Amino acid sequence: MPPVEHSAPIMSFDQVSKVYRSYSTPQQKLREMLSLGRKQYFRETRALDDVSFDLQPGDRLGVVGENGSGKSTMLKVLAGVLAPTSGKVEVRGRVSALLELGAGFTADLTGRENINQFCMLHGMHDDEIAEAIPQIIRFSELGDAVEHPVRTYSSGMSMRLGFGCAVYVQPDILIVDEALSVGDAYFQNKCLAKIRSMLDQGITFIYVTHAADAVRSLCNRGLWLEKGKVRLAGGAALVGGAYQSEIFSRMVRAGIAGTATKTDDELQKELPTEPEATVADEASNASSKVDAGRLEAFAARIEPLRTGSGEIRIDDISVINEVGIETDMVEFGEPVRIRVYYHLESKTADRCVLSLGLTDQSGRQLLHFNAGLRGLYVSDAAPKIQQMYEFVFDNTLCPGEFGLTAGIATLIDHPQNVGQSLIERVIDYCSGGARFKIPYPVERPSHDLWGVVHVDYTVTSYSLD
């Protein structure tokens, strides 16, 4: 295996296309063979069409696109599973790919035997394998099941074993498809923490996802595929924002069309308005009813990274302006009003709290709001009836783009840090629920707008004579 050259791209895709040929019947393929190529009966499908990009060592590429856009095909070409029909692919370094659950495992071998085989196929030496095996077993948390055949594993167990193998073969390039969405909340967060630690060490990372916020938080570059072609390539924030905006608009349009035949009474029964006891007084002048298409769009947008046991579900997050209309723009210095809609799927004996987080473009949390500290608990609501919380806070944020996440959980007090809580059990967690922007003021303000937040301050001058 050649060493990684830091002066050259670690991975290069040069005008790569992948074309599949399909025949309506087996007889048509036979006729084509008998004609010695003079007649063609096949139909071509271009899964990839003239795709080009380079990755430098340490780059983190997020790939987005609808189903059928060519994302998985591109990853398989990168991983060497598929050969391109045309174009050139160059990869320098050891590649580890988590593309499909259980891919590369032999069903009749035990988990331990599959780990050993996986490491050997990735070019590891005996001493490296001996060091990696206990680390993989410990990370995957399979326990005694590691001595059982893989065919007896559940999808979650297969994913844990696959991810453990993928990250502990010491790769130069890590490729991850959306297999992480199968795991439970605990293991998903464990995987993401491991990925972030590998990114800190400078690994090159390629991640396919439908969640634009995951691209912005984990990646520095983005690639949007559409029908096998590159629709947009550039910074992660640019590509993630454009893709999220396109999908959201499309889903809303489809949802509105799908609900046009319903009467107002039917919609009212499906989506009742919030009781006054749980909504701020300021919300009384605006309708709290949410269109069914909007709910579908929200669910589709956050589903890839959604976690939790699901007894209570978050339905929507929206930013509201001073006249009660949804917006994605808040003026500098104006109060911020955010509505979080939810409903109970089933009653729970636990006291559950809804929290709202505000993040920057990298996914780092800047502000956190806990409704439980105001005596409000989502578990007190009646099942199957939509509820709403409205959070209002003074805006001290400097101009920029911000994200909103919401979660429902049972909490316990932090044993050491007064004023902090620890999550005991996740009921629902929605990353990338909404975004908004604070633009720079039109007129020059009397303060400097650097940093994340602006606070009022005084300056006093003293003479030391």
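Above is the first protein from milestone M3; the second protein from the same milestone is given next.
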Amino acid sequence: MAGLDRKRVVVVDGGYESYDIEQRVLAPLDADVIVDPCHGDPARLKAATGEADAVLVRDSPIDAETIACMRRCRIIVRYGIGVDNVDLLAAQQRGIFVANVPDYGAEEVSDHALTLLMSVARRSVTRDHAVRGGAWNVSPGEKMYRIAGRALGLVGYGRIARALERKMRGMGVVRVLVYDPLLEPSAFADVESVDLNSLCQQSDFISLHAPFTRDTSHIINSTRIALMKPTAILVNTARGGLIDETALIEALRSKRIFGAGIDVFEHEPPCPDHPLFALDNVVLSDLTAWYSEESAAELQTKAAEEVARVLQGEPPRHWVNRWTRG
């Protein structure tokens, strides 16, 4: 009978080498960690989570129908920062906490944003291909521009954006423009707070660090791309839906902007014949900005700790669908 009292913590997406960390954190609470990769399948998600006391999710959509089938769930934790794949209101109405892990991987993501920016600015990918093909000293045909003395634009000004700012100031960037309507004026002490159109007009490098919501969908569209300098570089390590990909593809094809560094796509994984793959002024990666061995361990630990707090009767530290507790 004792086994019937054990708690079920269900991981609905695979992706990590092991779940020893979660098991170690939750074992003292008589909780079993059950890994059941559902691959986004609605029926399988409902079956996997119906008797769960807690759910850990990466990419699968946890919609209102899935939440309605959860008979015991007390918390849903997103492995990561964005929670756009979880119906926050439906969970709130059922009294289910939703938490994320916003305080991990800032160094890795900012490193990756800088890497993409540098790869575009210094044309490292096309140079690599050219040298392997026998070319040499082709600089005049592929102009490059100095990074020092230029302006960085940050769309969103959280931990990752501030880490990138620190690194790029070390490279000689002299202006930092920020668009983040969610912040109080006091948050902009060392940067220039501007509207998004001004940021697009004045920045040499634009890096996106905003959450994906209905308000931020296609926040970078054809109108705003048209405002950018012809030497501008656009980097996205946040969410693919922030950019209208059709508009970006057209701008890159026509050389309307210098280039782009993209780690996230509107639809993931992208189709094999995605138009961005044919362009030489964009550097692409596979949603890998967050990753290092250290950040993966940190993410798994902090996600499991949020579950542990709730199973012990406490609210999660990073509670994103807040309500007034009775």
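Note on the second protein: The mean pLDDT is 95.
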